[in-house]
Design a protein that fits this description.
globular; SUFU-like_domain; alpha+beta; single chain
Length: 193
């Protein structure tokens, strides 16, 4: 299947954002029934040594739905993890499959159990979706040739951090993460709560 012009522009946007790293690969992930797939790019050394950046490529070809309403923009999922957590690509694919299945994603949405599904022994269990911040302004929304594309960054959080967000707000939980110096790429970090 040929790559669309819009998908090429998404790939170039990701390559530009992750340009401080080295391209590793694009992995293709299929749904269980093999009716749909999503590609995930990996760049080693981005945004710094010992870290790999990941992004879906082509998810934005599918409409983003809020119930029966199609949003005027499309979405790609990105994130970064310390070296050694190659399952992070699978996590982004899992979030992408939720979108392909009609799930609505947006900043501050928490996708439960995604980390736990791949790394059950870690304290981090879930993914919080946020506006991208690890790559500066390079993954802001853009026009990919008639398709408005927004990126959401997936950040691992713990059960206790999820509980805090549910009791108070996601903003309060993220403020605490920043205040306590939680590294968004460290899947093995201790909970800040």
């Amino acid at each position: 299947m040929p790559i669309s012009e819009a998908d090429k522009r998404v790939g170039l946007k990701v390559a530009d954002a992750f340009d401080d790293g080295e391209f590793d690969r694009v992995a293709r992930f299929w749904t269980e029934d093999e009716s749909a797939f999503v590609d995930v790019a990996k760049y080693d050394g981005s945004p710094g040594p010992g870290i790999a950046s990941y992004a879906t490529l082509g998810l934005s070809a599918a409409p983003l739905m809020d119930g029966s309403t199609e949003m005027p923009f499309r979405v790609e999922i990105c994130g970064a993890a310390d070296d050694g957590y190659d399952g992070f690509a699978n996590m982004l694919a899992s979030v992408a499959f939720e979108v392909l299945d009609g799930g609505f994603v947006y900043p501050d949405r928490i996708i439960g159990g995604v980390v736990e599904g791949y790394y059950p022994d870690l304290e981090m269990k879930h993914l919080l979706l946020m506006s991208p911040f690890l790559w500066g302004e390079r993954l802001r929304s853009f026009d990919a040739g008639g398709r408005q594309v927004a990126f959401l960054q997936a950040v691992p959080i713990s059960n206790a951090e999820l509980d805090l967000a549910m009791r108070t707000s996601v903003d309060e939980m993220t403020d605490l993460l920043m205040a306590r110096g939680a590294e968004p790429t460290d899947l093995a970090r201790a909970s800040v709560v």
